[in-house]
Design goal:
Oligomer: single chain
Distance between the termini: 32 Å
Structural class: alpha/beta
Shape: globular
Order of helices and strands: EEEHEHEHEEEHHHHHHHEHEHE
Mean pLDDT: 90
Largest sheet: 6 strands, mixed
Radius of gyration: 20 Å
Low-confidence stretches: none
Length: 308
């Protein structure tokens, strides 16, 4: 096996840490466990390093981790602390004795989707953000401001709006099947606020209700459909703000894995004159690209071996 092509790729997110050992397009082994709050926290680099190293140690026996020649790590919170990002790159390089590249999960998603080319990517998961790298490698961003101030049209937004619609129906507002779905979560509508407050991560918990909204809308529920159409309108606005004159976007994130929602969003974007292009890969592919290739258009946003 040619060791020159073996790389360790990681996606260290807030809900999950994934690692893969790759050789070219082949995944030799993988492991995953819980995530962490993000690099912006105190001692964030050390926490991320220990989590990544611990997850890498979970790779199946027999996987040739000693043959690594590069590490690419997409990590939540990179944009919050360049210092912690540089420290993490240095820790990884020292531990595994190979060059290491650390970049944000969003930059990795863009790299994976467009393989380093300029353009716009919309990520719709628990949060929602649009990124565009222009021809000069400058980053332009819209939204991604978190559950309190932004992430409009995201999984959290859809789920929250669905729960609110359920309570409005309970109060005598427009009838919706979402009331029964929400009641099943807490036992009664009156228990929903306390049920949500007891959650370790209310934003993620609300995002979990998105699937119920999608099912309701696809089944013809008028309230659910209205919520999804509004989510699409908000996401089109986010893409427009990030894209400038660009009229093409790639879509990523768990919410757009729903064929029903993706279809609605495609139609909304098309009505705004924006073409959806096929994504070429995901964030793990982007991290692999950052590990293997220097001088990328996005190079200024990649931290290598302790230096920017």
């Amino acid at each position: 096996m040619g060791s020159e092509n073996v790389i360790l790729v990681a996606d260290v997110g807030k809900s999950r840490c994934r690692v893969e050992l790759r050789q070219g397009d082949k995944v030799l082994g993988s492991a995953d466990q819980h995530g962490f709050p993000g690099l912006g926290m105190d001692h964030g680099a050390r926490f991320a390093f220990e989590l990544l190293a611990d997850t890498a140690a979970m790779l199946p026996a027999g996987v040739p981790s000693d043959s690594m020649w590069r590490i690419g790590a997409a990590v939540a919170g990179v944009e919050a602390s360049a210092e912690n990002s540089r420290e993490l790159a240095a820790l990884l390089s020292e531990r595994f004795r190979v060059p290491a590249a650390v970049l944000s999960d969003a930059t990795a998603a863009h790299l994976g989707a467009l393989q380093g080319a300029p353009g716009t990517v919309l990520i719709v998961g628990t949060g929602a953000v649009a990124f565009r790298f222009d021809d000069a490698g400058n980053l332009h961003r819209a939204d991604g401001w978190g559950p309190l101030l932004g992430d409009l049209g995201s999984g959290r937004w859809i789920g929250q709006q669905g729960l609110q619609a359920a309570l409005q129906a309970h109060d005598g507002g427009p009838a919706t099947s979402l009331l029964a779905a929400a009641t099943a979560l807490a036992g009664s509508p009156a228990r929903l606020p306390a049920w949500l407050a007891e959650s370790d991560n209310p934003a993620r918990t609300m995002a979990g209700f998105t699937l119920e909204v999608l099912h309701a809308a696809e089944a013809g529920d008028a309230v659910g459909r209205s919520l999804l159409h509004e989510a699409c309108r908000l996401l089109v606005n986010t893409v427009t703000l990030a894209s400038d004159d660009s009229k093409r976007v790639a879509l990523l994130g768990g919410v757009v894995k729903s064929e029903f929602f993706a279809g609605l969003l495609h139609n909304a974007l098309a009505s705004a004159g924006i073409e959806v292009v096929a994504r070429l890969g995901d964030g793990m592919d982007g991290a692999a690209l950052a590990a293997n290739r220097r001088g990328l258009l996005q190079e200024r946003y990649i931290h290598r071996d302790g230096t920017v």
